[in-house]
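Weekly structure sync, notes
Attendees: PL (lead), two postdocs, one rotation student
Agenda item 3: pending single-chain targets
PL asked that the sequence for the first pending target be pasted directly into the notes so everyone works from the same version. It is reproduced below exactly as submitted, 547 residues in total.
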Amino acid sequence: MKKKVGEILVETGVITEAQLEIALAEQKRTGSKLGATLMALGLATEEELSEALGRQTGVQHVDLEQVQPTPEALALVAEELVTEYELLPLRIEEDSLVVAMANPTDLVAIDRIQRYTDLFVRVVAAQRAQIRRATARAYERTGGEELETEIRDAVRSVQSGDAQDAGVIALVDRIIEMAVALESTDVHLEPDEKVQRVRFRVDGDLRRGPILPKELSSAVVARVKILAGLDIAESRLPQDGKIRFDLRGHKIELRVSTFPSVLGESVVLRILDPTRAQKSLDALGFSSEERDVLTRAAKRPNGLILVTGPTGSGKTTTLYAVLRAITGTDRKIITLEDPVEYQLPLVTQCQINEKAGVTFLTGLRAILRHDPDVILVGEMRDAETASIAMRSALTGHLVLSTLHTNDAVGSIVRLQDMDVPPYLTGSCLLVAVAQRLVRLLCTRCRFECEPSEEELLAVGLEPGGKWWRASGCEACRGHGVEGRSALFEVLEITPPVARLIFAGAAADEIERVAREKGFVPFREAALRRARAGDISPEELARVTGGD
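Predicted structure, written out during the meeting:
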């Protein structure tokens, strides 16, 4: 008999029997698929699930970052079918069409493609995220014609007096789908004198999207407001809302912010894709030593784990990864967030609501009466919240939280500024993690180079050594960038470091002692990534220029 996916994952050592039982219990409670449940619990990655599905169905697993679809194969299948069934035609082999699918067992999709192309379909398995990225690249040009048609339909809707006709609705849906396919974090709808511009934030940079006729501006903004439950008649004041968007069964949430300008309302949609936060500590890019430090701290019954970094650096994703490392049925986990970005199984999550009187301070006091083992406080914003969190860590709770500081050692100084006594910091703090996001060079078009002495000195680097840059290619759309990765500092509060904190030592002295115990500061970590060809010298200077 064909083995089940869960059995294959246990057999290959991805999960244990006990973890499978937890996942099955959670699946029964939520009604989700087992794969989605395992990813939500952080027990398996999408790649591991894709490989397990391949083993179950007996099909080959392919890496779409290394395989490019041929124009002949793409021309056979319409983009609507590709996006509807989340598949990608790769190549033609005699009378067969090789198709990459996220779900190789989808017989309806296979039959539909066979009848559509009049070719036998040979299926290979691939990650869903890779299929979306490859589809966005492959159909970028042909999709432009389809978008133009949708824009013309929307203009006709507005001219006919029905601004919320199917034309405008389809156009807004199309823009959101484009953003998800590009793995954007934000969509900007910006009014101009003669047009409405759409821009997508990808890998930290704003990239140009469709340019819409000015006459569509009000209708597009109104459609977004309707979806977000905002007042479409109010255009003089900023508004905030959210949209739950179902993209062919893939549920995402969009946080909507409107802002009045002299040329009209500007709208920004923040895309919260649950699959982006479903990462384990291994997948985030920690070294084995750093991961071990965090795992040890997460298993402690009490203490404080701090994650610091600028806004948008992925602090929440790191905190969720730590929670996934300790999620189980034997610990009560409660979070206090503003806002709750992603829902986690087996975790009680509470959202800040200042109008109703639920602040970080009042919420934390209430949580302590709710018999928690682990507490996540989204941010320590004031001295009183910091003090209660620290004392909670001292009295038998494991507390996770964030601060806004530039580096790991700086978090100790920040706690002192918040009037937390040094003896409390030294007693409670287990680990301080600082992080920043770096843009990775495209692996297909990167090349080894020798920048001039002037170029290196201009970005604060010593001449000599091996450096890498990227020229830009079709795979990275000419940007030379292929996603982002986190750069970490992991400061473990060892007894020598704790003694320095007790004594009120300066940050430089704390860092010196920590480095003797293996602490790696940002600049050194970035240099290693640059020498390995992961980032350019300019990117190294951008993220560590002040260090």
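Discussion points:
- The radius of gyration is 25 Å.
- The longest helix spans residues 140-159.
Action: rotation student to compare against the earlier draft before next sync.
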